[in-house]
Prior knowledge:
Layout: E1 21-27, E2 37-42, H1 46-49, E3 54-58, E4 66-70, E5 81-84, E6 88-94, H2 108-118, H3 122-130, E7 139-145, E8 150-156, E9 161-166, E10 169-172
Antiparallel strand pairs: 1-2, 1-10, 3-4, 4-5, 5-6, 6-7, 7-8, 8-9
Helix pairs in contact: 2-3
Amino acid sequence: MAQVAADYSNNPPQGPRGSHCSGFVATGSATRDGKPVIAHESFDDFWSGQYFNVCEEVHPTNGHAFKMQTVPGYIDSMTDFYVTDAGLGITETTIAGFVGYDVKGIPEFIRARKATQYANNIDQWVKLVNEGNNGGYANIWLLCNINTGEIARYEQGLKHQELLESTDGFYYG
């Protein structure tokens, strides 16, 4: 494992970064009708946030169709907000302050896109997003499945992961 991210940045981290976004997922007694609800809020600077104005619908040859919030010309969400025709809602909030990085791993945006396109349920999504985890972008993933009423909070770092699942209550990140 190498810690190289700061070597490739024009603006390397100066210690733990403050929060950049927040989100929540709720179901059961925590919602009005008992069905899952998921939301995400980006706290971006105006100069960059104004470009996240595309809601793209993707119909791949294989896997599930999905919608994502993105920027013009991007192949992934970048804001990490997806809704799939498998009934999954997916978002994330960044865990700040991590510096571990595996240069042989797969970047987060590739793993998230693959998991979103191919997963049929929350457990499959978590398995796919963790394959080849390079730790370059530690997240708290929030997920819901409208078919089962299930919600989840998946904390994904390079060395440590935790998955919490429920059919009643809420999670936030």
